[in-house]
# Entry
Amino acid sequence: MNHSTLTLREYNGIQIPQRPDGYINATKMCQAGGKQWSNFIRLQSANAYVEALEIDLQMCRSKIILTVQGRGDTVEQGTWVHPDLGIEVARWISPEFAILTNRWTQEIISGRSPLPVQKPIAALPSSEERLRTIRFGMDLLQDLGGIDDRTRLALQDLTRNILLEDRLKQPALPSGERFEWNISDRAAHLGYRPKSGDLTKIGKIAAQLYRTRHGKNPPKHEQYVGGTTRMVNFYSSNDLDILDEEIGAVMGRA
# Structure
């Protein structure tokens, strides 16, 4: 994103970036109001509002709530929300902030064209490409002196998981977007290298938020971890806001 296209708002001394299409950084909004986005999005009323927006705007949840995990770019980092949801977040913070946010939104959308479609998440390379990469890496390590047991086990897990993907039978999306993510794959996609303890922390909170939203546990699929088969939680593209928010929160503290 070009920073020159962002409008920097300010509330309680905190700068809150807003895009030309009206999307606003909800993470910064909550920070300015002394609150946390994760507390807002776990509210039943907040999820009901998002569901109503999905119907009214004919947009999926992952387009209404966008999470940007930056790599040193603090302006773009955080959760961005559709302007209609931004006003609802502001109302949750305070009536005064709601009035101010509504004014900001009216200013920025005055005379503009309809909201553009957000770019989909890049699809992973094909299974064949990833297996070729693993083979190349193994050959290279052998040439450099061999593969230790820990690395061999990790490569075995990765290979088995790639071969198991067909068993998940995930429906293909027209955009090429990946339909389901587990925590470790999503964290790696966002540029993080979480340890086992980090994954446990993220998993507990993300599962709790999922149960609050859907009234049931996240779906589980088979995956190889540490040389053994385990059932791990998976999250659909509509729930990436839950996953990305908690990954960012935990890894930001790591």
In short: The beta strands are 7-11, 14-18, 24-25, 65-68, 78-81, 180-182, 220-225, 228-236.
